[in-house]
Amino acid sequence: LRNVRMRFLFFETFKYPTAELTAKVDPAAFADLATKRRVKSTLPFRLNLHGVDKDLEASIVVTMISDTMVSVASEAPVAVHVEDFGLLPNVDKLQQAANVTNIVPTASVSFDFVFTADGSKPAATQTAAASTADVGPVATDAAKANFSDEECLNRFAVLSRTGAIYFR
Prior knowledge:
Layout: H1 2-10, E1 20-22, H2 33-36, E2 38-49, E3 52-66, E4 69-74, E5 78-81, H3 88-98, E6 106-109, E7 112-116, H4 123-133, H5 149-162
């Protein structure tokens, strides 16, 4: 139920289905990665969340896993303030739905991206995708590109009332 509330009431994914992070990396900063195998750096990036762009910065650790695979991970969590993205009114919606008054309007986000030289998915990602395919097809209209506000509110009301929320 928490995840559904976060998607519908807080992030409004029916209006803003994606968040986008954009960063430019200077290859010269990591020229000695093959020798050192691990380099710490600071990465400025732009986050587009809920239709708002914000420039942020992360302390990162870049690790050469193999000759063709590199990990880029946050060294420490990145603070994301809801008011920077116009999400403060949605905190109120969550508090009302959950009947609480103490939701902190900041999130800490960590990440660990793995990149391959040829652009393929790392083996662990491919394995995870293969295991979920074994479940079999499920009839759903989730592939529908956009739901109306009314459709979203109806779905949320049914899910909240019945508690019939299942995740795989």
